[in-house]
Amino acid sequence: MRPDMDPVGKWLDAATRAIRFGPDRKSVRAELSAHLEDKEADLRRIFSDLTEEEARERTLNEMGDPKEIGRALARLHRPWLGWLWTASRWALGLSLAL
Q1: Maximum Cα–Cα distance for the chain, whole Å?
Q2: Are 18 and 71 in contact (CB under 8 A)?
Q3: In the 8-state DSSP scheme, what is residue 77?
Q4: How far apart are the first and last CA of the chain?
Q5: pLDDT computed for residue 1 by the predictor
Q6: What are the φ and ψ backbone dihedral angles of 2, each rounded to 5 degrees?
Q7: Residue 82, number of CB atoms within 10 A of its CB
Q8: Shortest CA distance to 66 belongs to which of 16, 21, 25, 24?
């Protein structure tokens, strides 16, 4: 399967697209990816007759609408909070260096 056709990647892209602060987007994507993997593994363990593709499809359906999740995550991960956190780390590092 081509990487651009990967349903999990598309779901993750849609779920994290609205997060405007890059480092937050990257960490949220990694966390969501881990949740998807755990959910898929649980489904395959519980329902041993599921194929990998069926478990993946069911996982994505059960996780919900990625755009709706993305809007909720974007409200939590405001870019100004990320920039403020980054600036405070730089200020602390500079003050310790001096």
Answers
A1: 63
A2: yes
A3: S
A4: 53
A5: 47
A6: -70, 145
A7: 17
A8: 16
Question: Cα(50)–Cα(93) distance, rounded to whole angstroms?
Answer: 52
Q: What angle do CA 41, 48, 44 make, to 5 degrees?
A: 10
The reported pTM is 0.73
Helices (H), the chain: 7-16, 22-46, 52-63, 66-76, 79-97
* Residue 31 and residue 86 in contact, taking contact as beta carbons nearer than 8 Å: no
* Rounded Cα gap, residues 43 and 22, in angstroms: 31
C-alpha 54, offset from chain centre: 21
| Residue 80 reports pLDDT greater than 70 | no
pLDDT at 32 over 80: yes
